[in-house]
Hints:
CATH class of the largest domain: Alpha Beta
Mean pLDDT: 93
Order of helices and strands: HEHEHHEEEEEHEHEEEEEEHEEEH
Bound molecules: flavin-adenine dinucleotide
Number of helices: 8
Helix content: 25-40%
Radius of gyration: 19 Å
Shape: globular
Amino acid sequence: MSEDLKTLKDHYELAIIGCGPAGMAAALNAKIRKRDFILLGTEFCSPKLSKAPRIDNWLGFPQISGEELRQRFLEHLKEMEIKIVPFKVTNIYPGPPYTLLGKDESFEADAVVLATGVSVDKLFPGETELLGRGVGYCATCDGPLYKNKQVAFISYSQEGEDEANFMVDICAKVYYIPYYSDVLRLHPRIEVKKGKVKEIIGDSSVKQIVLEGEQIPVDGVFILRETLPAEQLVSGLEMEEGAIKVNHKLETSLPGLFAAGDCSGPPYQLFKAAGEGGTAALQAVKYLDNLK
Ligand SMILES: Cc1cc2nc3c(=O)[nH]c(=O)nc-3n(C[C@H](O)[C@H](O)[C@H](O)COP(=O)(O)OP(=O)(O)OC[C@H]3O[C@@H](n4cnc5c(N)ncnc54)[C@H](O)[C@@H]3O)c2cc1C
C-alpha cells in the first residue's frame, strides 16, 4: 500500500474522482475554499491531456503542447499543496454519505465530484448483462470468489498485469487478453491470448469468453479500462446520450453528486473540463454548507 493510501481517513467532506483538468480544477477550488477534500486518480494524470500534440484554444498559452500544460497543472497543484492520491474507485454506493470502494480500501464522503473523463472503448457484448454475475472491474476486490476457478482479464493497460498476478495463487487458471502492446510483468503461469474479444457468454453467471477463433470456458471476466462506465461506477445514476446527465449547476440525478468534464458530455474540450471542474467544486461547497 502506498504512503498516500496509509494516510486515508474514513470520511471526507468532498471526494473528487479523476485527475484530469476537470478533477484538478475542482481540487484547486476546493482547496481555496478550505474544504476537507481528497483528490483521487490513477498513476498518470491524465493520459488524454498528455496525448494532445498542440493545443490552440487554451487562453493565454497559444500552441502549448498537452504534455507541457499537464506539467504546469501538476506544478500548480504542488504549489497549492494538493496531493493526488493514486486510488482507482471501482464502486460508489449512493449516499449521502457516499461510500467509495477501490482496491483493499473504502471510505466515505458527504459530496462527490465525478471527473473521470470518457472512455472511448466500447462495452463488450454481454458485459452489461453479466455485470456482477461474473463480470467485474476489480479483481483484488472480488478475488476470493474465484478460488480454484478459471478467470480471464481483458486489460487496456499494464495496471491489469498486477491484478492478474494477484489472482494466480487463487485461481485454477488465469487468461490475459491485452489491448495494448508492452506486456511486461505478467506471472509465467498466466496464459496470454492475442485474439480480440467478440462476446462474453453466460446466463445466471459467466460461462465463456468468445475470442476471434476460439471459445474459452471461464467463471469470471475482469475488464480493466482507464475509465469505468459512469453508470456502472454508481448505480442509479441517470445518463443521457451516453453521458452523465447534469443541470447547469452540474448536479446529477443523485443529491450531493456532481459531474464535470468529458464525463458530462461534449464538447470534449479542456476549457469545458476545467470550467466545469471549478464550478462543480463551488456547487459542492454550497451543498456542504446547506448540510450543516
Ligand atoms: C489527441 C487529443 C488531442 C486533444 N486536443 C485538444 C485541444 O486541442 N483542445 C482541447 O480543448 N481539448 C483537446 N483534447 C481533449 C481534452 O484532452 C479533454 O477534453 C480533457 O482532457 C478532458 O478532461 P477530463 O478531466 O474531463 O478527463 P480526462 O483528461 O480524461 O481525465 C480523467 C482522469 O480521471 C482518471 N480516472 C478515471 N476513472 C477513474 C476512477 N474510477 N478512479 C480514479 N481515477 C479515475 C483517469 O485516469 C484520468 O486521468 C484532446 C484530446 C486528445 C486525446
